[in-house]
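Fold sample X.
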Amino acid sequence: MHPTSPTDPDHDRLARVAPRRQIGVLVFDGVEELDAVGPWEVLSHWTQTCPEDGWDVFCLSADGAPVVGAKSLVLGAHHSFDDAPALDVLIHPGGPGTRPMLRNPDHLGWVRDLRGSVPLMTSVCTGSLVYAAARLLTGRRATTHWASLNRLSELDPTVITDVAARFVDDGDIITSAGVSAGIDMALHLVARLTDVERAREVRRYIQYDPMPTV
């Protein structure tokens, strides 16, 4: 048998490398730190230890500059909105910084524009309020931080609010409850994008086994 020629179709197929898929974690002034860092811990461990799965994760802010979280932690960004790679998944955290976003036409327009090109939009905590204000949750199941459930309904009365779920997977939109619930959502995301066993590997490594003692 002759070796495969560089001009053969088989050689081309072998040489072709599938593009890596991208998850972006949004950060902004007033972001609830664990809303962003919890999913980041899950997803960065997964993507760094299992590069063969074909996924990368990065943080982005509006201008690419660091931001100051709700509890004063400074968080960096790898990209701005303008230079970020095309997203396959967006994670929109919550926190007090989402309140002005509900009245910010530029941010709401950015979210609506992404809806047209990003296959999977996810949120943590009050990030879902931004989605509701951008009219992404009309007639859909969703959740948010327990203290903001009424606000979610006020923003869009058609939202079918799940008051008990840690996260709600409604197909191309996933919303989670408050703060630590973003970790559960991120582990679900790993399972959905790969398989349950991979998510269990990540969960075991980060030793996430919530057992409240109070």
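Fold sample Y, listed below.
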Amino acid sequence: MARTAILESTDEAVAGIEDGSTVLVGGFGLAGMPFDLIDALIRQGAKELTIVSNNAGNGEVGLAALLKAGRVRKVICSFPRQSDSYVFDELYLSGKLELEVVPQGNLAERMRAAGAGIGAFYSPTAVGTPLAEGKETREIDGRTYLLEYPIRGDYALVSAHRADRLGNLVYRKTARNFGPVMAAAATTTIAQVSSVVPTGELDPEAVVTPSIYVDRVVCVEARHYTVQGAR
């Protein structure tokens, strides 16, 4: 019997996400953003969330809509500001939102470490910058490194291209981005996909996220946005 639940609606998929949860949200800007799951999370009502994502939202869709709804306490990301991040800008500058900036490579590796069961690792990124303040350092082969700890999520919301009935996932090109490491780093992984196919139809060599990392799958229609975040 498959451990992954194939659900009928996004509302059912995000049911049970608690106030104060740490939620890993896939996407590189708008590419691979799980728009439908985020919209369902807004309807669901969980608040005081810590969001881990590459960006802090575009326009007023997806993650930006969640921020605008006042459901997020803290954002951990590598690239919080761009030309259309005005929702984040307003909340952060008014003191309504906490921010932890993590260099992009470290962000990915800290989640990968969580999924791989690695207790911590040393990275040279951010040495000598304000981001190094308060972190343990170590010199290895004449180079200074910072000690970095895993980022684990209570939930991960990811967007994949297709799933099979067991919950194996394949992605579409750059929309993959952080999806695989987030799926492995979360206690509960929820994936929205464009289609669910019979078990055996996916090429095993093409499966990026095995079903063991996936708890809930919901099929949604593809949605497209301009770079400014308008439909």
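Sample Y note: Residues 124 and 143 are 8 Å apart (CA to CA).
Also: The mean pLDDT is 94.
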